[in-house]
Amino acid sequence: MSPGQLAETRIAELGITDPGDIDVEAIAYDAQMLVEYEALEGCEATLVGVGDRAIATVRPSGVRGRDRFSIGHELGHWEMHRGRSFSCRVEDPDRNLTSDKPLEKEADEYSAHLLMPSTIFNPVVRSLGKPGFRELDDLSKHFESSLLATCIRLADIDALPVVIACYSNSGRRWSKVAAHVPRRWWLRDKLDDDSFAHSLLFSGTRTVSARKQPGEVWFENGDAENYEVTEECMPGKAGEVLVLLYLSSPMLDARYDPNVGVRRFNDQGSYVKRR
Ligand SMILES: [Zn+2]
């Protein structure tokens, strides 16, 4: 069973069908994991387990959704990685999405599914069309999760052709792409001057709603100019911008592009490193 399935099984066993009933402290207590709040140095949450009991300590973030995600994360460790102690920097996708620490990814996946189980989350998303940041913020309040976790979960459920990405002035920090988006679309490493995200990051000018953009603004592919994407951005952590892209439907049918990415074919038909 995957971490996500494990969490969703727990939700199903508890008969929960409404996000308001996802009481993470109670679910943790039921699993013999006590939750305490304390000012921690250098990490956001810790887990110490002895025998069949554990104590999770969470540093209060001031955002209930983040604290809940931290509890879900530690509960994931407790359910899946029993016998070990953890000191976690929860909800740091820059590290967790690119990290080679599989246990941290598993705990994040567990927490995302616990707070936003597919059976409840997916139908709500389907009723929203293509949600922008405002709708996603409402959604995060509805599920009492954080906005960031909600955006990542949106890409994870693979219901919409969405890309969530985070950029700083040194380039792309991380990205999460819905699984059905063809891998041939090669997201730019640096923000294009014409992107709204570039204006937000470098001149502080915010384009409030989602707007159409030529595909080349966001993708390196030579034929990207023939396609359109919808871009919306918002400030992220200090010095970062969060980007929400929706690909237009023709992009989903575009064929394999041999001329983009880290490898391509040479004249003899072999793969060669491109960069
Ligand atoms: Zn952890």
Radius of gyration (Å):
20 Å
Query: What would the principal axes of the Cα set say about the shape?
Result: elongated
Number of self-contained structural domains? 2
Question: What's the arrangement of strands in the largest beta sheet?
Answer: 6-5-9-8-7
Let me know the largest β-sheet: 5 strands, antiparallel
For the record, give the distance between the C-alpha atoms at the N and C termini, rounded to a whole number.
38 Å
Estimated structural class: alpha+beta
Number of helices: 10
Order of helices and strands: HHEEEHEHHHHHEEHEEEHEE
Bound molecules: zinc ion
Percentage of residues in helical conformation? 25-40%
Strand content: 15-25%
What is the subunit arrangement here? single chain
Unreliable stretches: none
Number of strands: 11
- Mean pLDDT reading: 91
Structure keywords:
11 strands; 275 residues; 2 domains; 22% strand; binds zinc ion; five-stranded antiparallel sheet; alpha+beta; four-stranded mixed sheet
What does this structure look like?
The protein has 275 residues and is of the alpha+beta class. It folds into 2 domains: 3-118, no CATH class; 161-275. Helices cover 35% and strands 22% of the residues. The protein contains 10 helices and 11 strands. It has helices spanning 3-13, 24-30, 64-80, 93-96, 102-115, 118-126, 133-142, 147-157, 196-203, 249-253; strands at 33-37, 45-50, 53-58, 86-88, 162-168, 171-177, 211-214, 228-235, 240-247, 263-265, 271-273. The chain has a 5-stranded antiparallel sheet. A 4-stranded mixed sheet has the order 1-3-2-4. The chain has a two-stranded antiparallel ribbon with strand order 10-11. Strand 8 and strand 9 (240-247) form a beta hairpin. Helix 1 (3-13) runs parallel beside helix 5 (102-115), helix 3 (64-80) packs across helix 5 and helix 7 (133-142) crosses helix 8. The longest helix is centred in the first third of the chain and has 17 residues, at 64-80. Bound molecules: zinc ion. Zinc ion is lined by residues 73, 77, 86, 88, 104, 107. Residues 73, 77, 86, 88, 104, 107 line the site of zinc ion.
